[in-house]
Amino acid sequence: MNDTKLTDIAAAVGVSVTTVSKALKGYPDINKDTRARIIEMAEKMNYLPNENAVNLRTNQTKTIGVIIPTTVHHFFSSVLNGILDEAEKRGYLVIILQSNEKYELEKKQISLLMQKRVDGILISLSNETDDFSHINAVLNKETPVVLFDKIAKMVHCSKVVIDDRKAAYDAVSYLIGKGYKRIAHFRGSLVPQNSIDRFLGYKKALEDHGIIFDPNLVFMCDHNTDFEDGYANAKKMVESQQEIDAVFAITDLVAIGIIKYLNEVEIKIPEQIAVIGFSNWFMSTVISPKLSTVNQPGYDIGFKAVSILIDEIIQAKNHVPIKHQTITLPTEIIERESTVRI
Q1: Superfamily name with CATH number, domain 6-49
Q2: Predicted model pTM
Protein backbone atom coordinates (compact mmCIF):
# COMPACT_ATOMS: atom_id res chain seq x y z
CA MET A 1 0.00 0.00 0.00
CA ASN A 2 1.35 3.42 -1.00
CA ASP A 3 1.17 6.06 1.76
CA THR A 4 2.76 8.98 -0.09
CA LYS A 5 1.17 12.26 1.00
CA LEU A 6 1.21 15.77 -0.38
CA THR A 7 3.57 16.74 2.47
CA ASP A 8 6.11 14.15 1.25
CA ILE A 9 6.09 15.58 -2.27
CA ALA A 10 6.29 19.14 -0.94
CA ALA A 11 9.35 18.27 1.19
CA ALA A 12 11.07 16.49 -1.71
CA VAL A 13 10.55 19.38 -4.14
CA GLY A 14 11.03 22.15 -1.56
CA VAL A 15 7.69 23.88 -2.00
CA SER A 16 4.53 24.30 0.10
CA VAL A 17 1.75 21.72 0.34
CA THR A 18 -0.61 24.27 -1.21
CA THR A 19 1.66 24.61 -4.24
CA VAL A 20 1.76 20.81 -4.68
CA SER A 21 -2.01 20.57 -4.40
CA LYS A 22 -2.56 23.32 -6.96
CA ALA A 23 0.03 21.89 -9.35
CA LEU A 24 -1.58 18.44 -9.33
CA LYS A 25 -5.01 19.99 -9.98
CA GLY A 26 -3.69 22.04 -12.91
CA TYR A 27 -4.12 25.52 -11.42
CA PRO A 28 -2.77 28.14 -13.90
CA ASP A 29 -1.04 30.28 -11.25
CA ILE A 30 1.71 27.68 -10.70
CA ASN A 31 4.96 28.14 -12.65
CA LYS A 32 5.27 25.58 -15.48
CA ASP A 33 8.73 24.41 -14.37
CA THR A 34 7.54 24.03 -10.77
CA ARG A 35 4.49 22.09 -11.92
CA ALA A 36 6.64 19.79 -14.05
CA ARG A 37 8.99 19.06 -11.09
CA ILE A 38 6.02 18.35 -8.80
CA ILE A 39 4.34 16.00 -11.29
CA GLU A 40 7.63 14.19 -11.91
CA MET A 41 8.18 13.73 -8.17
CA ALA A 42 4.56 12.57 -7.66
CA GLU A 43 5.03 9.91 -10.33
CA LYS A 44 8.40 8.89 -8.90
CA MET A 45 6.86 8.48 -5.42
CA ASN A 46 3.80 6.62 -6.85
CA TYR A 47 1.43 9.17 -5.38
CA LEU A 48 -2.28 8.37 -5.59
CA PRO A 49 -4.94 10.93 -4.64
CA ASN A 50 -7.08 10.13 -1.62
CA GLU A 51 -10.40 9.23 -3.24
CA ASN A 52 -12.29 9.53 0.03
CA ALA A 53 -11.07 13.08 0.45
CA VAL A 54 -12.01 13.89 -3.15
CA ASN A 55 -15.47 12.40 -2.60
CA LEU A 56 -16.03 14.44 0.53
CA ARG A 57 -14.92 17.62 -1.19
CA THR A 58 -17.06 17.12 -4.34
CA ASN A 59 -19.93 15.33 -2.58
CA GLN A 60 -19.74 12.67 -5.29
CA THR A 61 -18.39 9.11 -5.39
CA LYS A 62 -18.59 8.67 -9.19
CA THR A 63 -20.26 5.35 -8.38
CA ILE A 64 -23.70 4.09 -9.35
CA GLY A 65 -25.59 1.06 -8.10
CA VAL A 66 -27.45 -1.42 -10.32
CA ILE A 67 -29.94 -3.97 -9.00
CA ILE A 68 -31.25 -6.64 -11.36
CA PRO A 69 -33.62 -9.51 -10.52
CA THR A 70 -31.43 -12.26 -11.99
CA THR A 71 -28.33 -12.84 -14.10
CA VAL A 72 -29.71 -16.01 -15.69
CA HIS A 73 -31.69 -14.19 -18.36
CA HIS A 74 -29.67 -13.19 -21.41
CA PHE A 75 -31.75 -10.00 -21.49
CA PHE A 76 -30.22 -8.72 -18.25
CA SER A 77 -26.72 -9.63 -19.42
CA SER A 78 -27.35 -7.44 -22.47
CA VAL A 79 -28.68 -4.65 -20.26
CA LEU A 80 -25.55 -4.79 -18.09
CA ASN A 81 -23.31 -4.58 -21.15
CA GLY A 82 -25.06 -1.36 -22.16
CA ILE A 83 -24.80 0.04 -18.65
CA LEU A 84 -21.12 -0.80 -18.24
CA ASP A 85 -20.08 0.55 -21.64
CA GLU A 86 -21.72 3.95 -21.13
CA ALA A 87 -20.75 4.25 -17.44
CA GLU A 88 -17.08 3.60 -18.26
CA LYS A 89 -17.12 6.24 -21.01
CA ARG A 90 -18.49 8.77 -18.54
CA GLY A 91 -16.09 7.89 -15.73
CA TYR A 92 -18.43 6.02 -13.36
CA LEU A 93 -17.83 2.84 -11.40
CA VAL A 94 -20.75 0.39 -11.32
CA ILE A 95 -21.76 -1.79 -8.35
CA ILE A 96 -23.96 -4.67 -9.56
CA LEU A 97 -26.29 -6.52 -7.19
CA GLN A 98 -28.87 -9.28 -7.78
CA SER A 99 -32.16 -9.40 -5.89
CA ASN A 100 -33.00 -13.00 -6.90
CA GLU A 101 -36.58 -11.77 -7.41
CA LYS A 102 -36.88 -11.20 -3.62
CA TYR A 103 -38.42 -8.02 -2.22
CA GLU A 104 -36.64 -8.17 1.15
CA LEU A 105 -33.25 -8.67 -0.50
CA GLU A 106 -33.97 -5.79 -2.87
CA LYS A 107 -34.72 -3.51 0.13
CA LYS A 108 -31.50 -4.62 1.84
CA GLN A 109 -29.48 -3.91 -1.30
CA ILE A 110 -30.98 -0.44 -1.68
CA SER A 111 -29.91 0.29 1.91
CA LEU A 112 -26.41 -1.05 1.22
CA LEU A 113 -25.99 1.14 -1.85
CA MET A 114 -27.09 4.21 0.09
CA GLN A 115 -24.54 3.38 2.81
CA LYS A 116 -21.90 3.23 0.06
CA ARG A 117 -23.03 6.76 -0.90
CA VAL A 118 -23.64 5.92 -4.56
CA ASP A 119 -24.54 8.91 -6.71
CA GLY A 120 -27.56 7.18 -8.25
CA ILE A 121 -29.34 3.83 -8.62
CA LEU A 122 -30.62 1.83 -11.58
CA ILE A 123 -33.11 -0.92 -10.74
CA SER A 124 -35.35 -3.50 -12.37
CA LEU A 125 -37.83 -4.51 -9.67
CA SER A 126 -38.20 -8.03 -8.32
CA ASN A 127 -41.31 -10.10 -8.99
CA GLU A 128 -42.24 -9.75 -5.32
CA THR A 129 -42.00 -5.97 -5.11
CA ASP A 130 -45.41 -4.40 -4.52
CA ASP A 131 -44.34 -1.81 -1.92
CA PHE A 132 -42.17 0.99 -3.23
CA SER A 133 -41.39 2.89 -0.04
CA HIS A 134 -37.71 1.89 -0.22
CA ILE A 135 -37.45 3.45 -3.71
CA ASN A 136 -39.31 6.58 -2.66
CA ALA A 137 -37.01 6.92 0.37
CA VAL A 138 -34.01 7.16 -1.99
CA LEU A 139 -35.76 9.74 -4.16
CA ASN A 140 -36.70 11.75 -1.06
CA LYS A 141 -32.97 12.02 -0.28
CA GLU A 142 -32.54 13.56 -3.76
CA THR A 143 -30.53 10.58 -5.02
CA PRO A 144 -31.56 9.95 -8.63
CA VAL A 145 -33.20 6.61 -9.48
CA VAL A 146 -34.00 5.23 -12.92
CA LEU A 147 -36.25 2.17 -13.28
CA PHE A 148 -35.93 -0.13 -16.28
CA ASP A 149 -37.79 -3.17 -17.64
CA LYS A 150 -39.78 -4.12 -14.52
CA ILE A 151 -41.05 -0.79 -13.25
CA ALA A 152 -43.70 0.74 -10.99
CA LYS A 153 -45.91 3.33 -12.66
CA MET A 154 -46.66 5.05 -9.35
CA VAL A 155 -42.99 5.77 -8.56
CA HIS A 156 -42.13 9.25 -9.79
CA CYS A 157 -38.76 8.85 -11.47
CA SER A 158 -37.37 8.32 -14.96
CA LYS A 159 -37.96 4.97 -16.63
CA VAL A 160 -36.65 3.07 -19.67
CA VAL A 161 -38.99 0.40 -20.98
CA ILE A 162 -40.51 -1.26 -23.99
CA ASP A 163 -44.24 -1.20 -24.69
CA ASP A 164 -44.90 -4.67 -23.23
CA ARG A 165 -48.60 -4.53 -23.99
CA LYS A 166 -48.03 -3.70 -27.67
CA ALA A 167 -45.21 -6.24 -27.99
CA ALA A 168 -47.45 -9.00 -26.62
CA TYR A 169 -50.33 -7.81 -28.80
CA ASP A 170 -48.07 -7.98 -31.87
CA ALA A 171 -46.83 -11.48 -30.96
CA VAL A 172 -50.33 -12.90 -30.52
CA SER A 173 -51.61 -11.10 -33.63
CA TYR A 174 -48.70 -12.63 -35.53
CA LEU A 175 -49.76 -16.12 -34.38
CA ILE A 176 -53.37 -15.44 -35.36
CA GLY A 177 -52.18 -14.26 -38.77
CA LYS A 178 -50.46 -17.62 -39.19
CA GLY A 179 -53.78 -19.38 -38.65
CA TYR A 180 -53.51 -20.29 -34.95
CA LYS A 181 -56.75 -19.85 -32.98
CA ARG A 182 -56.43 -21.66 -29.63
CA ILE A 183 -53.50 -19.73 -28.16
CA ALA A 184 -52.34 -20.39 -24.61
CA HIS A 185 -50.38 -17.84 -22.58
CA PHE A 186 -47.69 -18.79 -20.08
CA ARG A 187 -47.69 -15.59 -18.02
CA GLY A 188 -45.64 -14.19 -15.17
CA SER A 189 -46.86 -13.54 -11.62
CA LEU A 190 -49.54 -10.98 -10.79
CA VAL A 191 -47.17 -8.28 -9.46
CA PRO A 192 -44.62 -7.13 -12.11
CA GLN A 193 -45.98 -4.49 -14.46
CA ASN A 194 -44.44 -6.13 -17.52
CA SER A 195 -46.17 -9.42 -16.65
CA ILE A 196 -49.51 -7.60 -16.33
CA ASP A 197 -49.00 -5.69 -19.58
CA ARG A 198 -48.01 -8.78 -21.60
CA PHE A 199 -51.11 -10.59 -20.35
CA LEU A 200 -53.31 -7.61 -21.26
CA GLY A 201 -51.71 -7.43 -24.72
CA TYR A 202 -52.40 -11.15 -25.22
CA LYS A 203 -56.02 -10.74 -24.17
CA LYS A 204 -56.59 -7.63 -26.32
CA ALA A 205 -55.18 -9.32 -29.44
CA LEU A 206 -57.63 -12.21 -29.03
CA GLU A 207 -60.50 -9.78 -28.56
CA ASP A 208 -59.60 -7.65 -31.59
CA HIS A 209 -59.44 -10.75 -33.78
CA GLY A 210 -62.78 -12.12 -32.66
CA ILE A 211 -61.39 -14.94 -30.49
CA ILE A 212 -63.09 -15.49 -27.14
CA PHE A 213 -60.68 -15.30 -24.19
CA ASP A 214 -60.50 -18.59 -22.29
CA PRO A 215 -58.95 -18.29 -18.80
CA ASN A 216 -58.22 -22.03 -18.88
CA LEU A 217 -55.57 -21.32 -21.51
CA VAL A 218 -53.57 -19.08 -19.15
CA PHE A 219 -50.84 -20.84 -17.16
CA MET A 220 -49.10 -19.04 -14.29
CA CYS A 221 -45.30 -19.03 -14.07
CA ASP A 222 -45.14 -17.80 -10.49
CA HIS A 223 -41.55 -18.67 -9.62
CA ASN A 224 -38.82 -17.04 -11.69
CA THR A 225 -40.42 -17.29 -15.16
CA ASP A 226 -37.64 -19.67 -16.13
CA PHE A 227 -37.05 -23.02 -17.87
CA GLU A 228 -38.61 -25.06 -15.05
CA ASP A 229 -41.80 -22.95 -15.17
CA GLY A 230 -42.12 -23.58 -18.90
CA TYR A 231 -41.45 -27.30 -18.63
CA ALA A 232 -43.85 -27.87 -15.70
CA ASN A 233 -46.66 -25.83 -17.23
CA ALA A 234 -46.24 -27.48 -20.64
CA LYS A 235 -46.80 -30.80 -18.87
CA LYS A 236 -49.97 -29.41 -17.23
CA MET A 237 -51.14 -28.05 -20.57
CA VAL A 238 -50.75 -31.35 -22.40
CA GLU A 239 -52.26 -33.38 -19.56
CA SER A 240 -55.29 -31.05 -19.49
CA GLN A 241 -56.12 -32.36 -22.99
CA GLN A 242 -57.36 -28.95 -24.08
CA GLU A 243 -57.42 -28.02 -27.73
CA ILE A 244 -54.38 -25.73 -28.04
CA ASP A 245 -52.46 -24.98 -31.22
CA ALA A 246 -50.02 -22.26 -30.06
CA VAL A 247 -48.38 -20.80 -26.95
CA PHE A 248 -47.22 -17.25 -26.25
CA ALA A 249 -44.59 -17.43 -23.46
CA ILE A 250 -43.62 -14.49 -21.28
CA THR A 251 -39.87 -15.17 -21.73
CA ASP A 252 -37.61 -17.21 -23.99
CA LEU A 253 -36.51 -19.29 -20.99
CA VAL A 254 -40.13 -20.31 -20.40
CA ALA A 255 -40.55 -21.02 -24.12
CA ILE A 256 -37.45 -23.22 -24.15
CA GLY A 257 -38.89 -25.21 -21.24
CA ILE A 258 -42.09 -25.67 -23.29
CA ILE A 259 -40.15 -26.87 -26.33
CA LYS A 260 -38.13 -29.27 -24.19
CA TYR A 261 -41.27 -30.94 -22.85
CA LEU A 262 -43.13 -31.01 -26.19
CA ASN A 263 -40.09 -32.62 -27.85
CA GLU A 264 -39.96 -35.27 -25.12
CA VAL A 265 -43.61 -36.27 -25.61
CA GLU A 266 -43.21 -36.10 -29.40
CA ILE A 267 -45.63 -33.27 -30.03
CA LYS A 268 -44.55 -31.66 -33.28
CA ILE A 269 -43.59 -27.99 -33.25
CA PRO A 270 -45.15 -26.02 -34.93
CA GLU A 271 -47.37 -28.53 -36.77
CA GLN A 272 -49.30 -29.45 -33.61
CA ILE A 273 -48.38 -26.62 -31.24
CA ALA A 274 -46.49 -23.46 -32.18
CA VAL A 275 -44.39 -21.56 -29.63
CA ILE A 276 -43.28 -17.92 -29.51
CA GLY A 277 -41.09 -16.45 -26.76
CA PHE A 278 -40.00 -13.02 -25.60
CA SER A 279 -36.56 -11.33 -25.44
CA ASN A 280 -34.54 -12.98 -28.25
CA TRP A 281 -32.06 -14.84 -26.06
CA PHE A 282 -29.14 -16.36 -27.98
CA MET A 283 -30.37 -19.87 -27.03
CA SER A 284 -33.39 -19.20 -29.23
CA THR A 285 -31.26 -19.92 -32.29
CA VAL A 286 -29.55 -23.10 -31.06
CA ILE A 287 -32.52 -25.15 -29.82
CA SER A 288 -34.59 -27.32 -32.16
CA PRO A 289 -36.79 -26.01 -33.56
CA LYS A 290 -35.37 -22.51 -33.51
CA LEU A 291 -37.60 -20.24 -31.43
CA SER A 292 -39.65 -17.36 -32.82
CA THR A 293 -39.56 -14.49 -30.36
CA VAL A 294 -40.04 -10.80 -29.61
CA ASN A 295 -36.72 -8.97 -29.84
CA GLN A 296 -36.21 -6.90 -26.70
CA PRO A 297 -33.34 -4.36 -27.07
CA GLY A 298 -31.51 -5.09 -23.81
CA TYR A 299 -28.24 -3.31 -24.65
CA ASP A 300 -30.07 -0.14 -25.71
CA ILE A 301 -32.20 -0.21 -22.53
CA GLY A 302 -29.07 -0.38 -20.36
CA PHE A 303 -27.23 2.26 -22.35
CA LYS A 304 -30.16 4.70 -22.27
CA ALA A 305 -30.98 4.06 -18.59
CA VAL A 306 -27.47 4.82 -17.34
CA SER A 307 -27.16 7.82 -19.65
CA ILE A 308 -30.33 9.33 -18.16
CA LEU A 309 -29.18 8.50 -14.63
CA ILE A 310 -25.79 10.19 -15.04
CA ASP A 311 -27.43 13.26 -16.58
CA GLU A 312 -29.75 13.46 -13.55
CA ILE A 313 -26.80 13.03 -11.16
CA ILE A 314 -25.10 16.01 -12.78
CA GLN A 315 -28.32 18.03 -12.69
CA ALA A 316 -28.81 17.25 -8.99
CA LYS A 317 -25.23 18.28 -8.20
CA ASN A 318 -25.72 21.59 -10.00
CA HIS A 319 -29.13 22.13 -8.35
CA VAL A 320 -30.91 21.97 -11.71
CA PRO A 321 -34.53 20.72 -11.44
CA ILE A 322 -34.83 17.16 -12.80
CA LYS A 323 -37.58 16.53 -15.35
CA HIS A 324 -38.41 12.86 -15.20
CA GLN A 325 -38.91 11.07 -18.49
CA THR A 326 -40.12 7.69 -19.72
CA ILE A 327 -38.29 6.32 -22.74
CA THR A 328 -40.06 3.54 -24.67
CA LEU A 329 -37.82 1.57 -27.04
CA PRO A 330 -39.21 -0.42 -30.01
CA THR A 331 -39.50 -4.21 -30.31
CA GLU A 332 -39.90 -6.52 -33.30
CA ILE A 333 -41.05 -10.05 -34.09
CA ILE A 334 -38.25 -12.47 -35.02
CA GLU A 335 -39.76 -15.33 -37.04
CA ARG A 336 -38.12 -18.75 -36.79
CA GLU A 337 -39.06 -22.42 -37.09
CA SER A 338 -41.23 -22.75 -33.97
CA THR A 339 -44.15 -20.88 -35.58
CA VAL A 340 -43.76 -21.45 -39.31
CA ARG A 341 -45.75 -24.39 -40.63
CA ILE A 342 -43.97 -26.26 -43.40
Answers
A1: lambda repressor-like DNA-binding domains (1.10.260.40)
A2: 0.81
